[in-house]
Amino acid sequence: xxxxxxxxxxxxxxxxxxxxxxxxxxxxxxxxxxxxxxxxxxxxxxxxxxxxxxxxxxxxxxxxxxxxxxxxxxxxxxxxxxxxxxxxxxxxxxxxxxxxxxxxxxxxxxxxxxxxxxxxxxxxxxxxxxxxxxxxxxxxxxxxxxxxxxxxxxxxxxxxxxxxxxxxxxxxxxxxxxxxxxxxxxxxxxxxxxxxxxxxxxxxxxxxxxxxxxxxxxxxxxxxxxxxxxxxxxxxxxxxxxxxxxxxxxxxxxxxxxxxxxxxxxxxxxxxxxxxxxxxxxxxxxxxxxxxxxxxxxxxxxxxxxxxxxxxxxxxxxxxxxxxxxxxxxxxxxxxxxxxxxxxxxxxxxxxxxxxxxxxxxxxxxxxxxxxxxxxxxxxxxxxxxxxxxxxxxxxxxxxxxxxxxxxxxxxxxxxxxxxxxxxxxxxxxxxxxxxxxxxxxxxxxxxxxxxxxxxxxxxx
Length: 461
Ligand code: URP
Ligand code: ZN
Ligand code: ZN
Ligand code: ZN
Hints:
By secondary structure, this protein is an alpha/beta fold. The protein is built from 14 helices and 19 strands. Strands 1, 2, 3, 4, 5, 16, 17, 18 and 19 form a nine-stranded mixed beta sheet that branches. The chain has an eight-stranded parallel beta sheet with strand order 6-9-10-11-12-13-14-15. A hairpin with a 2-residue loop joins strand 7 and strand 8. Helix 3 runs parallel beside helix 4, helix 4 crosses helix 7 and helix 7 runs parallel beside helix 8. It is globular and about 70 Å long. The structure holds N-(aminocarbonyl)-beta-alanine and zinc ion (3 copies). The site of one zinc ion has 3 residues, from loops.
């Protein structure tokens, strides 16, 4: 299986240059000008287009059992939607129930993920603590290619990790050469604010952001950063949505602390006016945590991405259809939290980032694949176009336009948070593990073609 991508501008995080890319099997075997290809090679003409590393979405939840239901995209439909949008690798989450053995949850998620059409790898959540968790973290790192652990500081009475668990798990992560990550929101504050709102009779989706103001997120971000500082661990903060959390990261980094931040495509371009809609279905469809914020926060997130204090863009892809969201009719605390985006992230970040001059094409590559590959130890297998890297490539037409809509998306859930947004800059071809899986609207995702990507532990500090 040989594919040659001819005549494009190859964009890596460090530079952009004219050249051809030759793929053989699942790898890139040559990069250079005027490459020869065997007669039977698939030829992709990339004239006038950019040729970039396939996107890595470091935060998705396919088929997630959550809040009494299961998210609508499974590992096949979710990864397939990603391929259609130029994303060739997802990082999903194994989330054990409190008291569930980590290895049991690990086996369940690995089973569900077998049908993935694109490559996948897992962060494992630490939702509780005892000696078995300590031991299983070791097994996961040493034997199963896990090098990141997730901690939910929110979702009290469910998957929330208390401070004791955070400290023990961060320490254990350091010992193993794994990186701790956090969903930063003060779960106790969220819970108390939710109860107050319900008591006042404010029960609709508009109450959701009122129960999770920026300060609630910033408190947890500061706490996680402080814990990491005391223990000497790095920390990665998922879905940073507000200026105050970004300030915490910026402060810590200025003092030399190794803190990383992730921005979601949704948080970058959608504001909190969606919760004021009189259409309760519409407002509910936007319920995710942290919630969408006011425009001043969006500006801060873009500045963070450009200035280097935010490192990755993700989606937190976790779709629920209207019927699922309706479980929270009359009680916003029961609306399954989550929104989509795995299919749209690359185009949304290009359109709102590169077309506006906020990001250069190389910076775009950095925040859509390279940084995630480096932070989570998949580089240079992923996140770069170079000899020896996986043949995960997106051919990008900077002039092509598309209007994003639930009517034309591949993802399930029947809703699109980017509905009606016209983007300029779209994938024309996606090559995943050397196979042309998407060509100008034609998706040829194959169930089970995706591979689990082992991520070795980091060398001891
Ligand atoms: O609302 C969200 N983000 N749902 C998915 C779970 C999480 O918090 O990441
Ligand atoms: Zn073609
Ligand atoms: Zn989260
Ligand atoms: Zn999430």
